[in-house]
Amino acid sequence: MPEQKTLPDYFDFYELPVAFHPDLDAVKAKFYAFSKKFHPDFYANESEAKQQEVLDLSTLNNKAYQVLSNPQKRLKYVLELKGIVETDEGYQLPQSFLMEMMDVNEALMDLKFEPDAEKLQQVKSEVDAIEFQLNDELHDLTKKADENPSDSTGLLSAIKDIFYRQKYIARIREQLTKQ
Predict the structure, then answer these.
(1) In the Cβ-directed half-sphere of 11, how many Cα atoms lie within 13 Å?
(2) C-alpha–C-alpha distance, residues 123 and 129, integer Å
(3) What is the pTM (predicted TM-score) of this model?
(4) Distance CA 85, CA 89 (A)
(5) What span, in angstroms and rounded, lies between the C-alpha atoms of 34 and 38?
(6) If you placed Cys at 85, which of 67, 79, 101, 141 could pair as Cys (CB 3.0 to 4.6 Å)?
(7) Read out DSSP for 146-158?
(8) Measuring CA to CA, how many Å separate 171 from each of 101, 126, 176, 178?
(9) Cβ-based neighbours of 112, under 8 Å, separated by 6 or more
């Protein structure tokens, strides 16, 4: 069995509660404060060990900010932190969603062989609508999970499902841009 890699806790590092919607002003403030505090130039005359420690903290600060300030990265990170999503997990999307996506995929395949600007726009509109609905559902669920973190277990599986649906939609979106 592969060894479980422990995630660094960026929320703990920034002294913030784990949340899908953290206070972004606080995230930014911590990032700038730590950027100054852990700037390698201030430790040029320190021991090699101290310089490495500061470099590690500076790197951690940069990664924490990149993840916590980006909604998609933050969503995945929070789900991983809570043990809901695992790297390279073979998640099975619901059959109803896959059937809906099969129609979109067939339309994309048809467009490869028979380009049609009107049909392409229709497929893009359909994907936009699906994406909008998923984003709406996700926002509602993550807000509820943040409001009551101790009672969010049921919500987390629904959030996970939407996370994987969004990943699927992102792949479709990539195909749309190649049309």
Answers:
(1) 15
(2) 10
(3) 0.86
(4) 7
(5) 6
(6) 79
(7) HH-GGG-HHHHHH
(8) 11, 15, 9, 11
(9) 179
Question: Are the C-beta atoms of residues 81 and 18 closer than 8 Å to each other?
Answer: yes
Tokens 């699906």 — which residue? 130
Q: Cα separation of 90 and 52, whole Å?
A: 37
Do residues 31 and 17 make contact, with C-beta atoms less than 8 angstroms apart? no
Q: For the chain, how far is it from start to end, CA to CA, in angstroms?
A: 42
**Burial of 170 (C-beta count, 10 Å sphere; 0-12/13-18/19+):** exposed
The CA distance from 43 to 48, in Å, is 9
Residues written for the chain: 179
Structural domains of the chain, with CATH: 10-81 (1.10.287.110), 95-177 (1.20.58)
Residue (of 51, 9, 15) closest to 30 by Cα position:
15
The per-residue pLDDT for range 119-171, each reduced to its tens digit, is 999 999 999 999 999 999 999 999 999 999 888 888 999 999 999 999 999 99
Alpha carbon distances (Å) from 98 to 101, 128, 145 = 5, 16, 26
Backbone Cα Rg of the chain: 21
- At 18, list the tokens: 């784990």
What is the Cα–Cα distance from 27 to 135, expressed in whole angstroms? 23
